[in-house]
Fold this sequence. Notes:
CATH topology: Rossmann fold
Strand content: 5-15%
Oligomer: single chain
Radius of gyration: 18 Å
CATH superfamily: HUPs
Amino acid sequence: MSSRETILVAMSGGVDSAVSALLLMEQGYDVVGVNLRTWDYEEAASCDPRKKSCCSPRDIQDARDTGLQLNIPFYVVRIEKDFREKVIDRFILDYTTGRTPNPCVECNTFVKFGILFEKARSLGIQKIATGHYARIHAGERFAIRGGRDQKKNQAYYLYGLTQEAVANTVFPLGDMEKSEVRDVARRHNLPVADKEESQEICFVPENDYRKFLLRSGVEFQPGFFKDT
């Protein structure tokens, strides 16, 4: 039986989370991979496959393939209901009340570092890790710093994390450049080494906000522009 510390790694199916899992293994952790199924993928199947997206059936398979290659336990956790309530409904509400939504912040705060922590605790695991390009500063209070790669700095999306969450999170890529991450993936023949990056919002097919909101029942009201 291993006496090494176990860590839960959020594996999205991209190169960043794959390399994060690999690096943590090299650091001596017992790694468990988890993919969070956040929404209904039926619509995604009808989208243009050339579009860059995330959280799709292909991403789950890519994450699973990486887990198999690294020989680590891998699980898919279905959280569609929680994601709908905490992220999608908030996105729709913000638009209907004239605010600018930021679903990635909501997802990180309440899903990746909320539900994922609950899953870790249920498995008796104290720490989680993600592929964010960010670093942690430990002083009187824990704080999140930007990653070394300024083009990939993702610290802003993590501002909603609690002190407990930050204290028990590891960001393996914080001191790396994206190009270095891909080099590591290629050297280890990871199946996602050259996979395109995901962009835009995962639950908005083809990045068409208007169509998504109309389909969600939002009724647009005519507005006007006013100068200073």
